[in-house]
Amino acid sequence: MTRVVYAALVALVGAAIAHIAVLLMLPHFSDRDAWARLTEAADFYKPVRIDAAAGEVPIVRSLDPLFYASACRFDLSDGPVHVHTPGNVPYWSVSIYDRGGQNVYAFTDRATETNLLDVVVLTAAQMIETRKQLPEEYRKAILVQAPVRRGIIVVRAFVPDQSWIPTATQFLRNVACTSG
């Protein structure tokens, strides 16, 4: 009897390990991930609305309906990435993801003195060079040292009620994502 129980437990543990391994490998083998969908939608450094409020099928599903979002892909081999937009919304957040969709950095408007979105994403080597002689356009920007070469920057704008829709839409429409 104990052999049957032991065999059943070993089988259950083995099945659990196999299922967990498959779930963890699924994003790696998927060709319809966020990176692939953004690649179809736009080139590097071109912001794209990814929420359903843009009037089309959302690029990324399961977004909070109170947030509008825009994303741009980047490659730090081309140089630092500067993301900024004029204007303001009640709340905004920025997340940086690696190519596989893992969040590597995130912050909100509370990280700035002015609540304006102005961020520069760099590699460690680019950070050292930039700090030696800080360009004027980076003086008020948040400098983020990213542990990735290629990734996705997602900008989210909070829309507390219908009256904020035009402001949030304009905020995301004016997002600039440039390399250099």
How would you characterize this protein structure?
This protein is an alpha+beta fold and 180 residues long. It has 2 domains: 1-30; 34-179, Jelly Rolls. It has 4 helices and 9 strands; from the N terminus they run H-H-E-E-E-E-E-E-H-E-E-H-E. The termini are far apart.
Global Rg: 21 Å
Overall helicity = 25-40%
Tally of DSSP helical segments: 4
Low-confidence stretches: none
- Listing every helix as H and every strand as E from the N terminus to the C terminus, the arrangement reads HHEEEEEEHEEHE
What is the domain total for the residues? Answer: 2
Oligomer: single chain
Arithmetic mean of pLDDT: 86
Span between termini: 70 Å
**What CATH first level of the largest domain would be assigned?**
Mainly Beta
CATH topology-level fold name of the largest domain: Jelly Rolls
- How much of the residues is beta strand, in percent? 25-35%
| Strand ordering within the main sheet | 1-2-8-4-5
CATH architecture of the largest domain: Sandwich
Number of strands: 9
What would you say about this model in short?
This protein has 180 residues and is of the alpha+beta class.
Topology:
Blueprint: H1 2-29, H2 34-41, E1 48-49, E2 67-75, E3 81-85, E4 92-98, E5 103-108, E6 117-122, H3 124-132, E7 142-145, E8 150-158, H4 165-173, E9 176-179
